[in-house]
Design goal:
The complex is a heterotrimer of chains A (133), B (287) and C (131). Chain B has 287 residues and is an alpha/beta fold. Chain B contains 11 helices and 5 strands, in the order αααααααββαβαβαβα. Classes of the chains: A alpha+beta (133), B alpha/beta (287), C alpha/beta (131). Chain B: Residues 155-266 form the STAS domain.
């Protein structure tokens, strides 16, 4: 059950900046602490860049979710790119397919409370994260 | 409309007095709650229950909304008064016997119907009592959560030892939530006081396991990223042994056995010494 | 296309990153800095990030690259003013930026660079702790 829901396109690198700002303003709206905001925005940045560079562009859907007394933000990054063949390997620290430092997926997983990834080669990738307040 | 609702409606007064005497023998806590209050609560709950059960036998339906709301208030006030969750549940459960008695008297001639109706009424009361327990525990959780937050605030004092030198004396067990608060308050204090050195003293930390060590290393790494040095002091011999046995790597971290040693090092690094002004002044402390 | 300004102060280059950078902007800063170090023969680079609200792995990598590249060109890089929340997040992300010297603010960063330049060109690893 989502209390608020928006979807944003991620097609160029300026969109990564824009979804970062969206993540920031939503986190501020839910009164996340400064450190939690920073972690959440950083994770958003990593995953949005993944969507852009590995998925060839896609969307980010943001939702405010509730679980009992606590509120949180769920972000869903969706692309129709080549997908990931070996998710376990992709989640390992230091694994990189694009010449980065290999901290995009594994690092952002450590910055959020819930992290789920679904991918099939040729069908694209969906990453869902939740950060609770 | 099944029959137990009609029986309850017809015998409201008898059930109430039966319920009250049942509570008086089994579940009363005269030390916590007076007669008048318990009578009021029982009367109100029975009225709401009778009313709701006339239209529905599903606790989730809208008919039971006011009953549930009332039980929530009951749970809250009982928890505040010091009842246990079990005692709070018994308040609802003790209604069973007088209700069953009334059913037995009304359906003497038809045992199979009696069983069905007792089952239906019992089921409903069980659900309501479960709801009461859930509420009671929910309130308790809120209290625990609040206390945890208060404790976190109390437990992380950052003290200034000298211009540019901070100390964080840690006492008690370090878990993830506490470490984050500790980390934040130390790093914020470094910026606020423009301090070059911070000393984390773990004399009061009972054990250092892999997780605690990782938390400490993270804090020290974060301080370094901001441009401050962080020393670790107060490492007791037992903890030093544990650290080595667990294979925790502290080679990149400046450690000292005592807070005073770490402070002396911090003074030395910032180009200061301590000298005695009395008698034959001893040499400045060697490190 | 917009660019991050680089100030030349004596033997040093000074950069203050104040905007939420997109990736191309970060890449162009990296290129501009290295070419200016070579051009002026600069001995020190100071990058102030006190107004940056986040540093993700891309920006972190760029900072590490700048430090490594300037070292090759015989210049020392100092990173100043990282916010506590940013530092905590970077550590959690797994980026400790081990090769970069850091300082609390621009003033101390300049001191650090000055000390380095006074000492002479030989590289030394004191892990940010100046005597």
């Amino acid at each position: 059950m989502a209390l608020k829901r928006e979807t944003y396109r991620i097609d160029v690198s300026n969109d990564v900046v824009r979804v970062r700002q969206v993540a920031r303003s939503w986190a501020a709206e839910l009164k996340f602490s400064l450190v939690d905001q920073t972690k959440f925005v950083t994770a958003t940045s990593e995953l949005a860049r993944n969507t852009l560079e590995h998925g060839g562009g896609g969307t980010m859907t943001a939702e405010i979710v509730e679980n009992g007394t606590k509120k949180g933000i769920r972000l869903i990054f969706d692309d129709q790119g080549p997908g990931i063949a070996n998710i376990e390997l992709a989640l390992r620290d230091g694994y990189t397919s694009a010449g980065g430092m290999g901290l995009g997926l594994s690092g952002s997983k450590r910055l959020v409370n819930e992290f789920e990834i679904n991918s099939e080669p040729g069908r694209g990738t969906t990453v869902t994260i939740i950060r609770w307040k | 409309m099944s029959a137990f609702q009609q029986v309850i409606k017809a015998n409201e007064t008898a059930i109430l007095s039966g319920w009250l005497s049942e509570m008086a023998t089994s579940t009363r806590r005269t030390d916590l709650m007076g007669d008048t209050e318990i009578r009021q609560q029982a009367t109100e709950l029975l009225r709401l229950f009778t009313e709701a059960s006339q239209t529905s036998s599903d606790v989730q339906s809208a008919a039971f909304a006011s009953t549930k709301e009332f039980l929530k208030d009951v749970a809250k006030s009982r928890m505040d008064q010091g009842f246990t969750p079990a005692e709070t549940a018994l308040f609802v459960l003790s209604m069973k016997q007088p209700v069953f008695n009334a059913l037995r008297d009304a359906m003497k001639s038809n045992p199979s119907e009696l069983v069905t109706e007792i089952w239906a009424a019992g089921n409903l009361l069980d659900k309501l009592s479960m709801l009461t327990v859930t509420n009671a525990i929910g309130f308790r959780e809120l209290t625990i959560q609040r206390q945890q937050e208060e404790m976190l605030e109390l437990s992380t004092p950052v003290v200034k030892l000298w211009d540019g030198i901070l100390a964080l004396p840690l006492i008690g067990t370090l878990d993830s939530a506490r470490t984050q608060v500790v980390m934040e308050s130390l790093l914020t204090a470094i910026v606020d006081t423009n301090s070059q050195v911070a000393i984390i003293d773990i004399t009061g930390v009972p054990t250092v396991d892999t997780l605690v060590a990782q938390h400490l290393i993270k804090t020290i790494t974060a301080a370094r990223l901001m441009g401050a040095d962080c020393y670790l002091s107060g490492i007791r011999p037992a903890i030093a042994q544990t650290i080595v046995h667990l294979g925790i790597d502290l080679t990149d971290i400046q450690t000292k056995a005592k807070l005073s040693d770490a402070f002396a090092l911090a003074l030395q690094r910032s180009g200061k010494t301590v000298v005695s002004t009395k008698g034959s002044a001893p040499k400045p402390k060697e490190l | 296309m917009d660019r991050i300004p680089i100030l030349k102060v004596g033997d040093c280059l000074l950069v203050t990153i104040q905007v939420d950078m997109h990736d191309e902007l970060a890449m162009s800063l990296q290129e501009d800095l290295t070419s200016q170090i070579a051009r002026y023969g600069s001995r020190g680079v100071l990058i102030d990030i006190s107004s940056l609200e986040i540093v993700d792995s891309f920006i972190g990598r760029m900072l590490a690259n700048i430090a490594a590249m300037s070292r090759v060109l015989d210049a020392q890089t100092v990173l100043t003013g990282m916010q506590p929340a940013v530092a905590i997040t970077l550590v959690e992300l797994g980026m400790a930026l081990p090769g970069i010297k850091t300082a609390l603010n621009v003033e101390r960063g300049m001191q650090l660079l000055q000390e380095y330049m006074d000492e002479g060109p030989e590289p030394e690893e004191t892990d940010g702790s100046e005597a």
